[in-house]
Predict the 3D structure of the following.
Amino acid sequence: AITFDVKGDMVYSKMKWEAGVHRVQRVPATESQGRVHTSTATVAIMPECDEVDVKIDPKDIEMSTMRSGGAGGQNVNKVETAVDLLHKPSGIRIKCTQERSQLKNKDLAMKMLMSRLYDLENEKRDMEEREKRGSQIGTGGRSEKIRTYNWKDSRCSDHRLGQNFPLADFLNADIGKIIDACIAKDQEEK
């Protein structure tokens, strides 16, 4: 597996057309009978995601207080220092009794809630990314190919477009023509 970053203007909008199964057909130098060998490589193009930003609307929180009990002297048994937060949209409940003041417990509970919501958002984003990657590469089988690089005939066939391109262009990293054709076909279909 190879992973790398590509940076620049509109990189994802152009590189996303490379996602899928790429098939290579060649006759190796060691092949004495001239048989064509076929192999594949799967390519997934993923945009870099920004940090998850968690915002909590105060209306989404239900807070109740209670006496903490336990160690801490008479104060924790007489004064309601414990905080119980319920985040209604997610159903996450945080009960905090660590501190001796209600304000500190509330702050701590809010931090814990933010952390849990942050983890939930990251998990959700990771799952979406896995699904997106899976839909791009499928099973990786040769029948799912988007493009074939044929060394013997010195051509590159894009199966989505039904067109052939000179293999030399791809070997020289000149993929602009095929990307432009993919963009044009996509806009035509919309």
Notes: The mean pLDDT is 83. Residues 52 and 125 are 9 Å apart (CA to CA).
